[in-house]
């Protein structure tokens, strides 16, 4: 008899599959998962914004030291996020459920390596897709004004600006985040973990802080841009189009180096 190697996280998957199958198969599960992780990831950064200079040990990591979001900016972004979820995300989830009804959960869990490669592949592919989309939406004046300008209302990004997006951009981004793990034939668990990871890196890109534990410092050789790179895109919008990694901007000559401490350049598109 052949002995099958049991993945390390099989017990966790069995528990989820046997006890929470109804929840996991619900069309709303991915929406609830991403919305709740978005809120959880944004809260600490909002607290840092609120405390500002009263917490110098945190504020010293702020990329644009003199630009903190105001209450009006926070409420504006919250309003747009709520609107987008009601009119785009929720209908998209229902449509997906209609066209792709919930399938039975597979018995076998993925291995840790499956998850790592699935996430890495999906993130690299997303980085390329968004790089092209983003560059086109900056080069074409009509596309920029109609779809992407809303995201550039703030020169100093803060966590809630992550989803301060036009509906078309949000649907496109959501589509790639959903479809990429499917392209790589990832396990459902990997798809969900990728969704949460993607919410995290997107919020981190916009957080406005360059902490020592920022992904750009954890990934070696400067291959990952992280918050400092995307912050530069908000200051100087004709550069740094790739959301996460640095290679595409280097290949296409749109890479802008980040200097520290930063001087505001004031080049709004
Ligand atoms: Zn941005
Ligand atoms: Zn942009």
From TrEMBL:
<feature type="transmembrane region" description="Helical">
    <location>
        <begin position="28"/>
        <end position="51"/>
    </location>
</feature>
<protein>
    <recommendedName>
        <fullName>Fatty acid hydroxylase domain-containing protein</fullName>
    </recommendedName>
</protein>
<feature type="domain" description="Fatty acid hydroxylase">
    <location>
        <begin position="122"/>
        <end position="254"/>
    </location>
</feature>
<keyword id="KW-0472">Membrane</keyword>
<keyword id="KW-0812">Transmembrane</keyword>
<keyword id="KW-1133">Transmembrane helix</keyword>
<feature type="transmembrane region" description="Helical">
    <location>
        <begin position="72"/>
        <end position="99"/>
    </location>
</feature>
<dbReference type="InterPro" id="IPR006694">
    <property type="entry name" value="Fatty_acid_hydroxylase"/>
</dbReference>
<dbReference type="GO" id="GO:0016020">
    <property type="term" value="C:membrane"/>
</dbReference>
<dbReference type="InterPro" id="IPR050307">
    <property type="entry name" value="Sterol_Desaturase_Related"/>
</dbReference>
<dbReference type="GO" id="GO:0005506">
    <property type="term" value="F:iron ion binding"/>
</dbReference>
<dbReference type="GO" id="GO:0016491">
    <property type="term" value="F:oxidoreductase activity"/>
</dbReference>
<dbReference type="Pfam" id="PF04116">
    <property type="entry name" value="FA_hydroxylase"/>
</dbReference>
<feature type="transmembrane region" description="Helical">
    <location>
        <begin position="111"/>
        <end position="133"/>
    </location>
</feature>
<dbReference type="GO" id="GO:0008610">
    <property type="term" value="P:lipid biosynthetic process"/>
</dbReference>
